[in-house]
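Input record (one chain):
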Amino acid sequence: MIIEALIFDIGNVLVPFNWKPAENLFRLYSDHFSDDAEKAFRELIRRLDLGELTGEEFASLGMRTIGFKRSATEFVAIWNSIFNDNPPMARVVLGLKKRFPLFLISNISDLHHAYLTEKYGVFQHFLDGVYSYRAKCAKPDRRIFEMGVTQFGVNPEKTVFVDDLPANVESASRVGLRSVQYDFRNHIEFERWLALLGVELEETEQV
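The corresponding structure, as predicted from the sequence alone:
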């Protein structure tokens, strides 16, 4: 199989994330982080990722929804604190970009997009991306994959798509992309899968 390009998800692929510590801080600094408030807060997150709310609007509404008692700056800092780096994947990306064009398709907000691209150098290796907050639709909706294929100018049958969620992998496969589910806790399996496709990594790119 000839591979001509690769498309990556962001969360739990390039940068693992853990919502729980941030949730604990929101509870600590809020007056009423109840189950109902959390449900309303998650609806705000959905609207944020679809571009229905700007980051500023989300911060204002989110603070009001949970009764956050500190500043908007602290609210956003907690919201952005959920991510960590993924050195094994960063090394693979660095090696792949020497041989293939790399792209992104992600369910992401303007807040997280701006934060991540500034904080993590891995994002400099990608040529373009389709993001839910701009596309106004989110994975697993097949439209976002179709947008990516058109925008990037790639042949889906010769393009790898990497995501952590089965529903997204399945939807991307229906569009024709060579899709694989990724688990950052078992990164070596991804490298083995690439090898089966004929994408060999140099020693410096391997874990």
